[in-house]
Specification:
It is flat and about 75 Å long. The protein has 12 helices and 14 strands. It has 3 domains: 181 residues, Rossmann fold, CATH 3.40.50.300; 79 residues, Helicase, Ruva Protein, domain 3 (Orthogonal Bundle); 72 residues, Beta-grasp domain (Ubiquitin-like (UB roll)). It has 393 residues and is of the alpha/beta class.
């Protein structure tokens, strides 16, 4: 699973990326500080099931803090996007090509309005313009891919009476478009898939736009929420885009808290609404932490960074977390509940077995719920935070 961070230059993408991953990246107050994409590991947070089972988990990947399990996901931070990127302006072509494999977009917005459309410092800029710009460029990107081949593609398909959904999925295979995606869009728009050569440019645009929204869903991270005008612009943004998930966010605050926690100065669990001071701090450190508490945590309940990751994976992509477990809840090396997998909603016990390893799927007999000890069959649909033992022949 790949979460792509998108947004104009200097909106705080690299700060968000570092806050989420603690990877070393260049954070600079000038446009296009990021040229090559940064890849790192972030984490979604869920309640671990270990306490319910009276044990202490030992994660093989990710980690667990105070009963909160952090499951790894991949993040990518790419160069800033400016208007005209779909036509090659700025680093547009490179930016868009790098985003092909992303499953979801996290649009980082400078909600304070202190950077203009090119990422240069200013005052009073309207951040709602950034949402319109990015939506327009992403839609133009998909339209451009289709339009370039449409005339020949549609005519051939119509003459040969080919499978439209399969053909479009192949055309967009590099962008993780499936036949089901195409069928869903056709159902919504009610376009004639047997006569695509007769579609107008407007129809092709609409089709490309709906396909992009379905295959590259987007969440808005209203960053720099603690700055002047941040809250006012955040409320405007929510009102203007009620169909999108909008999360108030302060990547600077999250990064400061994680760095302080890493240094042993505070006890902080990512996503919490508070922290505990562990050591004597300088006045400057105390003031900085107090400001984060007063301007961010007490108002919004968290810095928003963890919420953005969680909502992108669980609300937009609609994934669930499943714990595989042996009979004694240990793996071959004796680690307790070492793994936690993210799988799509609706995953069955058999599909989950195949997700872990093909041999488990091929030899599947039944699964056992680790809480209830009840056996379930291959068609049993798993729920979020289920723990299951896969039994094989």
């Amino acid at each position: 699973m790949l979460l792509g961070l998108v947004g104009k230059p200097s909106c705080g993408k690299s700060t968000f990326f570092k806050a989420a991953t603690l990877a070393e990246v260049l954070i600079a107050a000038y446009p296009f500080a990021t040229i090559k994409p940064n890849h790192g590991i972030g984490y979604v947070r869920i309640d671990c099931i270990d306490k319910e089972l009276g044990i202490q988990c030992q994660p093989r990947t990710g980690f667990c803090l105070n009963g909160q399990r952090f499951v790894p996901v991949e993040l990518m931070d790419v160069a800033g996007l400016v208007e005209g990127a779909s036509e090659g302006k700025g680093l547009g072509n490179q930016f868009l090509d790098e985003l092909r494999q992303a499953d979801v977009f996290i649009h980082i917005i400078d909600i304070s309005g202190t950077t203009d459309e090119e990422g240069k410092e200013t005052e009073g800029y309207d951040p709602l313009k950034d949402v319109k710009m990015l939506e327009k460029e992403l839609d133009a990107w998909y339209f451009g891919i289709l339009k370039k081949v449409w005339k020949t593609f549609a005519r051939t398909l119509q003459m040969e009476k080919g499978n439209f959904a399969a053909a479009v999925a192949r055309q967009f295979s590099g962008l993780k478009v499936s036949e089901n995606h195409v069928k869903s869009v056709l159902l919504k728009l009610k376009y004639d898939a047997e006569r695509p050569a007769e579609w107008s440019d407007e129809q092709i645009k609409n089709f490309a736009r709906e396909l992009r929204h379905l295959t590259k869903p987007m969440i808005l991270a209203a960053n720099k929420i603690d700055k002047p005008s941040g809250r006012k612009n955040f409320e405007r943004l929510k009102k203007e885009y009620p169909e999108l998930i909008v999360v108030p966010c302060s990547a600077d605050s999250e990064l400061a808290l994680k760095e302080a926690s890493k240094a042993g100065l505070i006890d902080y669990v990512p996503g919490d609404k508070d922290f505990k001071i562990l050591k004597d701090l300088s006045e400057k450190q105390k003031d900085a932490l107090e400001m984060i508490k007063k301007d961010v945590l007490e108002i919004y309940g968290s810095t928003g960074v963890q919420e953005v990751l969680n909502r992108a994976v669980f609300d937009l992509l609609r994934y669930i977390a499943i714990f595989p477990a042996g009979g004694d809840l240990k793996d071959s090396k004796g680690r307790v509940l070492p793994d936690c997998y993210l799988v799509p909603e609706g995953t069955t016990a058999l599909e989950f077995a195949y997700h872990i390893h093909s041999d488990l799927g091929d030899n599947f007999v039944k699964a056992v719920d680790v809480r209830t000890k009840k056996a379930v069959g291959k068609e049993h649909v798993l729920k979020h935070r289920d723990g299951v033992e896969i039994l094989t022949r």
